[in-house]
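Tutorial, part two.
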Amino acid sequence: MHPIAALSAFDLSFLRPAHDAFWQLLRTELQRRGLEHPPLKLTRPIDERRLWTHPALVVGQLDAYRFAQVFPATLMPIAAPHYDCEHCDGPLYRSLVIGRDEDAPDAWTDLEGRTAAVEGLDRLGSWRLFKAWVQGVVDPSAFFGRVVISGGSVESLTLVRSGAADYAIVDCVSWMLVRQHQPSAAIGLQVIAATDAGLAPPFVSSAYHDAGQRAAIYDSLASVIRSEAAAPVCAKLRLIDIEPADVAAYAAEPRPVPSTVTLLSAARSQRGT
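Running the prediction step on this input gives:
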């Protein structure tokens, strides 16, 4: 069975060359530490069910909520990443409420009944943190209007800029990466609010790997991220360090809550139907 690897949590199109370069450095370090035949390149496109249940997954990165809800039996968190981004604190990050400069509300509670754009309802950074935050302040059944599923952070921002949505929920790392590498996608937008913190997407490996293999993967990640050779590519990814993943904490991410929103596909919303 051929080993595979995927770094899909922040694999935005404009970051793929950086992720590919990071993987080549990591692949070399994995081989140096005795892991045989790491894949030559990252797996794309992503078939999540196949990828996150693959017994030969060497290393991956996925949303913490997706891990906790869908794949805890097949994956093991290896490392919690630290990002050089506003609203990040060690292994924690936040969701941001993004609106247009021209009609930004005085407070996020003024968005009641408005249309939101989110990457997906099964993402911690682009929905679950915000929904839990809202529930702690107001009645969600009264607050939420329509929610457009965009499929990606850049797509969510595009919907807001076009007027197809009133605000977007985007994690703070993606927002920083967009502003750094594709600033045109953030023109005319501003941060309205930041939610409470949650765990950033962990680096994971197949649960079938033994403790020694997992330790070698962690040590390889740490060595590369902290190396001078990887500094330029890690700067592009805003990745500054890792720490051992708290498995219990990742497994305890927020449970699903009853839906109170009306869902629209992005395509349908843009047609105005």
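Residues 92-198+255-271 form a domain with the D-Maltodextrin-Binding Protein; domain 2 fold (CATH 3.40.190.10). In part three we will examine how such features are distributed along the chain.
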